[in-house]
């Protein structure tokens, strides 16, 4: 099979993790495939065993990347003559593709919770994502939740092939050996991670003179930092709760592997990778009652029973009392999520798409 993979968006965050392990696992599983990967110039993503194409992207990014996809990538793809194209995000070449197009659907948060995005970002996503949804011959969603959201919000997509290929957790086995000597870990790179709620829950844990566990927020965005600093100080949690910027991979891995628990009360997730990363490392995990989080956790996390500080604090207390047997069951559940399975399901969907086209 000759495949073009559009990975021009895969430089940061969860999509980078997804693409990194997709590219890493593919050649070992399907060495007979001729896989061409489109990356931005200077990308540090590895493409061993695959055919690499780096494209220059002009600034500003919001214009430069779509332009590169519609010009450089479009010409390359037509010259390669692939059997199928895999776009790793729903923002790809807006021109009619030269082969059947499979679009990866991460989440539809911008449509479900539009207030969490600027007006400009919503407009850009509506234009670029909408075009991709119309052009695609099929979809690979990283969760059933994302596929259901796609079909509900864009009903015509339900008439085309849709596949769920969960993300993997086995990459954590390359990280340092886990301990529980570090602080609890939460996230604050987007408002859907509910950092304010976490701080309020830590205030609840500190009531009546109790000492709450140390807590570190990872990936704190510059937009959220001032407000969170004020909230921490107002609740007398300075020294207990710390804010960390985005960390290099090795530092991030160290913090997660040493965490006492993962606190992830996100109100919206397409998947929620920290959930199964934490479980695979033997950590107690606390989540909110979000559909995507519940799907990934599989009844092996402590779920808050409402969006209140009291409910989250109670879930944290339950997480502190979890048994060895509970954590072993959670680890066994997480072990079902492998990048081998992600690639296998994705490739099968591509092969079916080619068959449909023929």
Largest sheet: 7 strands, parallel
The tally of domains stands at 2
Helical content class? 40-55%
Q: Count of helical segments?
A: 13
Q: What is the CATH H-level superfamily of the largest domain?
A: Glycogen Phosphorylase B
> Architecture of the largest domain in CATH?
3-Layer(aba) Sandwich
- The CATH topology of the largest domain is given as Rossmann fold
The end-to-end distance, rounded to whole angstroms, is 14 Å
Radius of gyration: 21 Å
Low-pLDDT regions: none
Q: What fraction of the residues are assigned to beta strands by DSSP?
A: 5-15%
Calculate the mean pLDDT score and round it.
94
Shape: globular
Instruction: Please state how the strands of the largest beta sheet are arranged side by side.
Output: 3-2-1-4-5-6-7
What's the helix-strand series?
Answer: EHEEHEEHHEHEEHEHEHEHEHEHHH
Specify the structural class. alpha/beta
Number of β-strand runs: 13
CATH class of the largest domain: Alpha Beta
């Amino acid at each position: 099979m000759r495949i073009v993979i559009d990975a021009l968006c895969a430089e940061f965050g969860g999509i980078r993790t997804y693409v990194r392990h997709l590219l890493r696992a593919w050649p070992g599983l399907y060495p007979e495939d001729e896989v061409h990967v489109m990356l931005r110039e200077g990308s540090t993503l590895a493409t061993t065993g695959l055919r690499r194409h780096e494209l220059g992207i002009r600034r500003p990014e919001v214009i430069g990347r779509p332009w590169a996809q519609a010009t450089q990538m479009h010409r390359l793809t037509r010259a390669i003559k692939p059997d199928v194209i895999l776009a790793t995000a729903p923002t790809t070449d807006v021109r009619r593709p030269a082969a059947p197009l499979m679009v990866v659907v991460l989440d539809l948060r911008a449509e479900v919770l539009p207030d969490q995005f600027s007006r400009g970002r919503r407009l850009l996503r509506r234009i670029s994502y909408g075009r991709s949804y119309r052009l695609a011959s099929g979809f690979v969603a990283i969760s059933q939740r994302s596929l259901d959201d796609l079909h509900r919000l864009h009903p015509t997509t339900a008439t085309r092939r849709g596949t769920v290929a969960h993300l993997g957790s086995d990459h954590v086995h390359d990280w340092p050996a886990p301990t529980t000597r570090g602080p609890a870990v939460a996230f604050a790179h987007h408002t859907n991670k509910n950092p304010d709620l976490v701080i309020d829950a830590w205030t609840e844990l500190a009531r009546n003179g109790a000492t709450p566990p140390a807590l570190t927020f990872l990936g704190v965005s510059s937009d959220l930092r001032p407000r969170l600093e004020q909230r921490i100080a107002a609740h007398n949690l300075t020294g207990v709760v710390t804010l960390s910027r985005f960390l290099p991979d090795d530092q991030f891995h160290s913090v997660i592997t040493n965490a006492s628990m993962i606190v992830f009360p996100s109100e919206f997730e397409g998947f929620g990778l920290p959930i199964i990363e934490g479980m695979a490392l033997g950590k107690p995990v606390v989540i909110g009652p979000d559909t995507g989080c519940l799907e990934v956790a599989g009844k092996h996390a402590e779920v808050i029973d409402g969006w209140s500080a009291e409910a989250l604090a109670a879930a944290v207390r339950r997480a502190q009392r979890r048994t060895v047997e509970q954590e072993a069951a959670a680890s066994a559940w997480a072990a079902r999520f492998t990048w081998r399975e992600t690639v296998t399901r994705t490739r099968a969907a591509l092969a079916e798409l080619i068959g449909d086209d023929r």
